[in-house]
Amino acid sequence: MKFTLSWLRDHLETEASVERIATTLSAIGLEVESVENRADALAPFRIGYVVEAVQHPNADRLRACKVDVGDGTIRSVVCGAPNARTGMKAVVALPGAYVPGTGITLKAGEIRGVKSEAMMCSARELGLGQDHDGILDLPADAPVGEVYAKWLGMDDPVFDIGITPNRGDALSVRGVARDLAAAGLGTLKPWKAEPVAGRFPSPLRWAIGDAEGCPWVLGRSVRGVRNGPSPQWLQDRLAAIGLRPISTLVDVTNWFTFDLGRPLHVFDARKVAGEVLTLRRGREGESYLALNGKEIAVTPEDLVIADAEGVESLAGIMGGEHSGCDADTTECFIECALFDPVRIALSGRRHGLHSDARARFERGVDPALLPDALEAATRLIQELCGGEASEVVAAGAEPAWRREASLRFERIRGLGNSAITADEAVASLERLGFATVARDAESVTVAVPSWRNDIASSASAYRAGGTDLDQFAALAPERAALAAEGVERIEAECDLLEEVLRLPGLDAIPAVSLPVSSPVPLPSLTPAQSRATLARRVLASRGALDCVSFGFLARDVAALFGEAPESLRLLNPIASDLDQMRPTPVASLLLAAGRNAARGYPDVALSEVGGAYRDPSPAGQLAVAAALRAGATPRHWSEPSRPVAVS
How far is the CA of 380 from the CAs of 3, 319, 386, 456, 640, in angstroms? Predict the structure, then answer.
């Protein structure tokens, strides 16, 4: 998750330094992976004034210039840009400056007999874009001698933070600002979307054919839009976090994805066939051309958005080229939907598609934000593209997301080993958006905010009629329900305890050694572990390199080494070609030997002590020692050469 300091300050009233913000983020569990200030790389580049620009005496396409950079010295510069002229202001690099767009360090030299003591730069040479048709032509009021990055306002550090799978709310600038405000680093600025009045009925409407995959969706048309390049401020924000500006309509959706953590999509309404967009399961034989240029064959397990002619989008992951907005778009239809996180994650993995929308939907987005997000997006589109909006169309209904969780104060000391008081704990939760429902001397019950899908979110999985947990399968229904209720309460309490502990800083929790149960050291390895270690040592003594490989293979490969029963097929593989538990480690060793041979290392000796799987029962999961020697070189004078030897 990337954001700039200025973007953060749009939501957070703070004067904290970059260093303090970075330290606080890591302390509260939002680990800072890097802080990059683009201005640092451009510090050597200054604004210069071209005193004179004449034809180079020995070259038709070069100009000999005299440039003033504000230090009292007029420098000679040879320039090949066609727009170099007397009286212009340009970005100048002096000797010793590293030019990021070319990867060279500038040196003074002589070009065709004329001395060149500096360089006037294009946008591409500065790493600020792809324009290389000429040098940057700055406004007449640009101050000579000023550092270019400072004058341009580029002194805006970019934070890159790592987000854990449970914190979908932190995949937004507002979510990060909310956590920092709760940690005492400033005040969260209020935000509320201003409604946009609908002027006409929307020509498109929604239909939901898969309520489990999409319980609620909103949309509206905006006609009379002009979809040109987005304004510079929007392009700069997106470019700073590594996104390529495309067009105003697309850039607006990307803006809200990062600003509020609310992915949106815009269809070119005139390219949609029929009057209904349907959210349904994919069908065998259906495919669509995704925005990344790849043809995607959807499956019945996928949730898609389809018009009268077929699939237009893989819901929550990536739209299609056919209905995408371009420079000719004059009427768009905004999609604002709520999708099932598990379905989105599985579809994305199945097709190998990664997008910013998928990253947020598979973690869960704020279900209560849909109406405000649609209104805010509509207003921004009207401000930047013009046009008038239709009435809002909807299908489904807002899901029942409201829930409560309780925390016993004694758990703060007993489980968290912290001296945080009850009042401090309640105040921390309230700063994070939790509302106190009930409180006594021993505990507090709070209402969980809509954006925290990770708090007490597993409740439905334990209720009767929900997904059975393996550990409850052998219990009577009454006892299983009682056990499930206990698990639900414990998990919710642990969620709240984590919130209370992390706000003062995770590093503030004192470390405590585990109690020693016996003064006599116990064996560190089980008999099975000892046998595995001995097997590895024996194989290593025979010259085999120990391998660690996955316990699963492609289904067709596994079938070559025995049966590939359906009971050992993975429902949620990490890759489409790793969907079957392996029958023997020999298969993995052969694949590894093949990869080595393909890279010029045909003579290898490999070994592994690992799992072999016959059936899902404990007895069907074996620990096997295997070795393989590959290569055509004879290992003994009396033995014939063999390509592969297995033991």
Answer: 20, 21, 9, 35, 77
Residue 200 lies inside a defined structural domain of this protein: no
Ramachandran angles phi, psi of 83, nearest 5°: -95, 5
Type of residue at 594: G
Token pair in block for residue 583 = 């029958």
| CATH number where 461 lies | 3.30.56.10
Residue 6 has, within 13 A of its CA and on its CB side, a CA count of 12
In angstroms, the Cα distances linking 296 to 15, 335, 448 are 48, 21, 38
Measure CA 102 to chain center.
29
Neighbours of 460 (CB within 10 A): 12
Pair 7, 81 in one domain: no
Query: Cα separation of 123 and 119, whole Å?
Result: 13
Domain boundaries, position 557? 527-646
pLDDT digits (tens, 9 = 90+) for 547-579: 999 999 999 999 998 888 888 898 888 888 899
Residue 332 lies in a domain: yes
Same domain, 108 and 172: no
Q: pTM value?
A: 0.74
- Asked if the structure places residue 220 within a domain, the reply is yes
Taking only Cα atoms into account, the Rg of the chain, rounded to an integer number of angstroms, comes to: 31
- DSSP code for 385: H
Instruction: Indicate if 86 and 103 belong to the same structural domain.
Output: yes
> Residue 628's CB: how many other CB atoms inside 10 A?
22
Is the same domain home to 493 and 573? no
Residues 517-551: pLDDT tens digits? 667 776 778 888 899 999 999 999 998 999 999 99
